[in-house]
Amino acid sequence: MKLSNAPKNEIFDCGRCGLCLNTCPVYQIVKDETLSPRGKVQLARFVDEGNITPSKEFSDVFSQCLMCGTCAANCPSGVRHDTLFVKMRSQLSDQFGYGWLLRLAYQVFTDKEKMEFAANIAKYGRNVVLKKFSNDLASGRFNLHRLPEFNKKPFRKQLSEENRPAGKSRGTILYFTGCATNYMFDNIGKSVVRILTKMGFTVIIPNDQTCCALPVFINGEVDKALSNILQNIAVFNKEDTVAIVTDCATCHSALCKGYPDLLKSMGYPDQDALSLAKKVSDINEFLFDHFRLLSPFLVKKIPVRKVTFHNPCHLRNAQTVNNKVENLISQIPYCRFIPSQDANVCCGGGGSFAYKHMDIAKQIVSKKIQNARATGAEYWATACPGCYINLSMNLSCEDGLKVVHPVELINDLI
Fold first, then answer.
1. How far apart are CA 292 and CA 404, in angstroms?
2. Residue 202: predicted pLDDT
């Protein structure tokens, strides 16, 4: 996919007003115009006009973007920075490629057998090797003892494909588990299924689903992501379903926004992707909208828990969930919700960004940790497993904060 295929309004509609500078988490740290959303749009324009020849240094500039979408969400001119930067990254990838580690990662994300093999290796490293270290072990800037353990076996192999409620079913929900829940967060997955079946829904977990591929295509490797996209559309685009739920903001963003946008950009029919997008719901959004079906089951009495919240970028910017997650947490019995002043600021994870640009990422997440601690909360809820991992691995072992997914707080009361 070439930059020349981008609609010209994506490049030329930028009014250079600078509002994106105030919201870009990277620019707020580095204060370098070249690395700002506005600067990157102008560089893309110069490339399109033939005034600049891309180089490897160019690749480094466009890699220093979290792809959080905050600039696009706040742009008064409607510039779609995210889709423009994907096209720019794709062109740069075709010209200069990526390092061997990222190439390997993209191969893993787009092949289920390789993914399972890699997950088994990672499971041994995390669950066996790290347990032998008694001290606070850090790798570079990460506290690996805060890295959640891997599932003993993939979540989708732990439960039946069809999970029915005790009584009459209200309808069928398809559950897109994502890679993180399948290999690392089985407690989140079990909580989702238990909650939805208690509410009276039949939950189907399709075995043929695969990685959403967003980590692949936002880095420009759109051709590698295509098979995953088409397979997931075929598996989940069913008419007789109440909803398709996800527990991951990134997967939700891919299914709702990424798939239709990418297929259209590549010249593929996008009707099925648009049809799929209409049925997709973040699990927290779904629970908030159907809270009357959930509340009768929240009967267990426990001590009051103080909870703050980190709002994932892909939930905040890529969809229209608005404040439903915060409102859901506020309605959970025995939860005292305490907002953090920067709940809507990126955590600095951004997939591979936290590993390629550690200094910038660390400064971003350190501010968030400081503000979360200031709330006095015991639990730090977030609706994205990627954010969950990044926040956890930047907390010390002595930290009183525990990162959780909102469905875990709910499941404790059933």
1. 23
2. 98
